[in-house]
């Protein structure tokens, strides 16, 4: 599992995260955490119940919820 983003449709912060990773040439998989209940449950398991999107998971490890600055590391 590479980079995964749990998003909701129309989320401007999700779009900023997409734009950032696309600009860096980083491939990612995106899941709709608003309309897909199974993916939402999966997102909550990573985020400890935090509903904030985008929820970013890399290599099966939780990175962050929300988008302000790109993740460090």
Mean pLDDT: 94
Largest sheet: 4 strands, mixed
Tell me, what's the shape?
Answer: globular
Q: Determine the fraction of residues in helical runs and give it as a percent range.
A: 25-40%
- The SSE string, one letter per element, is EHEHEE
Distance between the termini: 17 Å
- Unreliable runs: none
- The largest sheet has its strands arranged as 2-1-3-4
Strand content: 25-35%
- Structural class computed from helices and strand pairing: alpha+beta
Specify Rg, calculated over alpha carbons.
Answer: 11 Å
Which terms summarize this structure?
4-stranded mixed β-sheet, about 30% helix, about 70 residues, globular, 2 helices, alpha+beta
Q: What is the topological layout?
A:
Layout: E1 3-7, H1 12-23, E2 28-32, H2 37-47, E3 55-58, E4 61-65
Parallel strand pairs: 1-2
Antiparallel strand pairs: 1-3, 3-4
Q: TL;DR?
A:
The chain is an alpha+beta fold. It is 32% helix and 26% strand.
Characterise this structure:
The chain is an alpha+beta fold and 73 residues long. The protein has 2 helices and 4 strands. A 4-stranded mixed β-sheet has the order 2-1-3-4, covered by helices on one side. The mean pLDDT is 94.
